[in-house]
Please model this.
Amino acid sequence: MRDLVREFLTYIQVEKGLARHTIQSYRRDLKRLEEWAATQQKTVSDLSRSDLRKWIAQLSREGLAPTSVARAVSAARGF
Model:
């Protein structure tokens, strides 16, 4: 099975030229999304908009700073 997250991270590094720290943060955000999707018995590619709204709400409930939530949303949107 293809590792789409790894391919995405390589893309944003090579093609978009994002900073190493940004890529590491996106990696953590997408791992968090994958783990949350697994708790919903879904893969990331199976998530609906409604699912993503629930994930975002969960991030806020966990106490993530609004800027961190915004970055996670950006990572998910780009992916």
